[in-house]
Each structure stands twice: as C-alpha cells, then as structure tokens.
Amino acid sequence: MINVGIIGGAGYTAGELLRILIWHPEVKIAFVQSTSHAGQPIANVHKDLLGDTDLIFAKADYTLVDLIFICSGHGKTKAFLEQNELPENLKIIDLSTDYRPKNNDKGFIYGLPELNKVSIAKADKIANPGCFASCIELGILPLAASEKLQEEIHVNAITGSTGAGQNPTTTSHFSWKNNNVAVYKAFTHQHLAEITESILQLQPEYEKAINFIPVRGNFSRGIMATIYTECNMTLEEAKELYQNYYSEHSFVSISDSIPDVKQVVNTNKCVLYLEKHGNKLMIISVIDNLLKGASGQAVQNMNVMFGLNEKEGLGLKPIGF
After folding, report:
1. 114 and 210 part of one domain
2. Which of 45, 51, 121, 302 is the most exposed, fewest CB within 10 Å of its CB?
3. What is the pTM of this model?
4. CA of 100: how far to CAs of 111, 146, 275, 298, in Å?
5. Where residue 112 sits, what CATH number does that domain have?
6. 71, 131, 135, 270: which is the annotated catalytic residue?
7. How many domains does the chain contain in total?
8. Can you name one GO molecular function term for this protein (predicted)?
9. Is 71 a catalytic residue?
C-alpha cells in the first residue's frame, strides 16, 4: 500500500487527484493539506466527494507518507522545498512549472511517461508536465524520435476554462468566457520551453521554430491541439510510425476519424489523428487538461514509480455526449 499526502488540496488538480486516489486499490491517503481550508471537511470544497470520503483538510505529517503530490500554484513548490525539511526517502510529484526545466537544481525528472518511462521508474522526484505541453508533445514525439522533423511546427490549441485554475480572474469569469473565444500568449506561452526540451531530447539537431497559438475556449475541460508541419512521409507511413511509437503506451490511441474533446474528457487518454495535405502532415491531439494534462498523469507517474501497472486506478470513463 502506498501512503500519500496532498499539498495544496483545495484546487482543481487536487480535486481530480482525490477522485482517483480515493478509489485506487494500492493507495491510502494519509493527509490532505490546505492553508485556506484547514480543519474543514474535504467535501465542503470538493462537493462531488460528499459520501465518498470523511477526510478533512489536516496538517501535513511527512513521516506518515511514501509520496506527496504538490498541487500548489506555480512558483510555490520552490518556496515549499526551501521552507520544509522532508525525509530523504520521500518521493515527490510536483504539478507546478517550477522544476520542469531539465537544468533544475533538485533532480526532478520530467514526467511524461511516453517520453521518460524508464527514468520515471527510477526517480524520486517528478515534475509533472503542463497540460498544453502534454497534448502537443504527444502529437509530435514520434516524428522527433525518428528525426523526421524538417521544418517549422505550427500549433493552434484550444483549452477549457479549468486550465486557468480555480481562482477567478477577469478572463475566467463566466460572463467573459460564455459565448467567447480568445487567443492569448501567442508565440510566448510558458509551455513552449518544455515542449522544445522534449523535442530536443529526441532530435537534438532540430533548430526550427515552434509556432504556438493558445486559445481560451468557452467549455470547462479538455484540450484540442491542431499541429502541422512539412513531412515527406506518406500518410500510411506516418500512421505506422505513430502506431509503433505508442504500441507500448497504454493511454495513447491513433484514430481513423477526427476526434472530439468529449472522447477523452474524464479519462487519462490521448487520442491522435493524422491527415496528409500535400507535403504537410496534420496531427490532431485531444486530452482532458485536468487528467492526462495534470492529475491523471500524476497518478500514472506514481504507478510507474512504484512498479504498478501504469493504468492502475485510472479506469475512468468518458462523460458521454
């Protein structure tokens, strides 16, 4: 049995973790910490868990656990590690951006299993990938692994409102989001850094631009990324390349028809679709931003770290149409 704790337990990603871990057959939740809700029942915040758990938000005791998930905001994990003396054998999965760069000074491994499963299995510290990054990288990695990337990569990706986190802002408020779509951080999104590092890990000589246009959608959860680049393979060759790359990865499927976001919402799946247009290869990639883009992938990483089947506890179902 894996004893786990959650730091920053009130947000969206912590809520998703709890929904998975409460029913995970190999996990016991020792504590869920939240500074803003200390002493309150978890179901007061994550209301859909009413009747599923009697846990309350409690003080963290790191001697009780084998692993902690850190679900605090970006920039807070570094402060947390500076302020707390943790047991040497404690494993960490961090869902923030703080330690995703490879040159981090704490020895975190980038936690995309479809890229780094062997390293994850040996790791004590995992930096969980960003949601856009996960979706886009899964669409590109087979090309990079076979050094088939030749020219610039173009990406347009739309994400649901939960990608902005639980705290309301002027651009996540319902009256702004409803019946609205908007581009933001064009060519400058923070996930570009980890996308670039992942591509260079597989194809070190790649020097072309990755042109990324992120879009805020007017739906709650999910990401659809549309990617295209010059490619001299036939469609059949490209499909075979992708099928071979993902043949031993449980959560990625290649579809023969254009996927919908609803196919993956409330699952840890990534569905990919390929089309050829002249010399351009188009890849559509869809994931749930809160699961394969965050908490589901964190549990997948935990399973790999502890030698479990990577699908353990992740038999989640689509919400339907």
Report:
1. no
2. 51
3. 0.94
4. 9, 24, 31, 14
5. 3.40.50.720
6. 131
7. 2
8. N-acetyl-gamma-glutamyl-phosphate reductase activity
9. no
